[in-house]
Amino acid sequence: MDLLDKIAEARLKEALEQGVFDNLPGAGKPLTLDDDSAVPKDLRVAYRILKNAGFLPPTLQVLHEIRETEQLLLHVEDTAERSRALQRLHWLRAQMDASDPGRSLRLQREDYYYQKVIERLDKE
């Protein structure tokens, strides 16, 4: 967690303790997370059908597989299985990079940091 995250977390905790978030409009009601305003109007129905059927867009599917593989790496002790999981992770990340060459610098920095952590774990 970087410094800005820690500051934000501390301020949120402080605001919670002071009751700043009490009595907000919509408190206790479920959030509406189906905002599809970024989806073109002619594709919204198709996206909604696919979403309700449990399908993910290819980019999100790859991200989901990356997260699953990362979780697997946290718990795998067998070196052969760990090596296969690392190869899968590298392949998935390469697939993600190829599908979205304009990824932000922040994501690239996170990838670099993550790679360094994996390298250190492999040495142990």
Main features:
124 residues; mainly alpha; 5 helices; flat
Largest sheet: none
Instruction: Tell me the overall shape.
Output: flat
Mean pLDDT across the residues is 79
Instruction: Summarize the helix and strand pattern as letters.
Output: HHHHH
Distance between the termini: 23 Å
Record field, number of beta strands: 0
- Give the proportion of residues in helices: 55-70%
**Strand pairing plus helix content: what structural class?**
mainly alpha
Please give the radius of gyration in angstroms.
Answer: 20 Å
Treating each run of at least 4 consecutive H or I residues as one helix, how many helices?
5
Q: List unreliable stretches of 5+ residues.
A: none
Query: Strand portion, in percent?
Result: under 5%
Could you state the oligomeric state of the chains shown?
A: single chain
Task: Note the topology.
Blueprint (H helix, E strand, L loop, with lengths): L2 H16 L22 H12 L5 H18 L3 H21 L5 H19 L1
Helix pairs in contact: 3-4
Describe the structure in brief.
The protein has 124 residues and is an all-alpha fold. It is built from five helices and no strands. It has a domain of 68 residues.
Can you characterise this structure?
This protein is mostly helical and 124 residues long. The chain has a domain at 57-124. Helix content is 69%, strand content 0%.
